[in-house]
Please model this.
Amino acid sequence: MITINIQNIITFIVVSLDDANLPDVDQFISDYQQIEPIEDPVFWLSCGAFICLMSGLIFADIMKSKLNNWATKKISPIPLENPRTISSWFSFFTGLTIIFVSALSIINFSIIKSIIFSSIISILFGISMWKAIKDLLSQVEAGTVKEIDEFF
Model:
């Protein structure tokens, strides 16, 4: 029943298009500009999102293992500055910079201004959040975790 209805709809569309007296379609459709994938901002936006996602998952797993070691073996979650945490943190904010640059280039910002603005924003977010996580892990180690209302 459903397949017959779908077949009737497709037949109707095909017959309607065949019967229509369409002038040259190129008059109505503007030329589609082909963009190389390396220059396509949507491609870079996707790459940045993928980098952020993967790096964020890796960093979250590292933090989870640090907290599990603290809870079970009483191994301090600090120092935070080991190569795995720094590289995952840096790659997350590199992906964020790529996302910002791509988004700004989609809305026609120049690439140089986009890179400068995105780098500044990512560096500010990265440093401030690194300090917040380091402070939180210090509080966990000391056993004095503040509530979120007291933190701000």
The mean pLDDT is 81. The chain is about 75% helix and 0% strand.
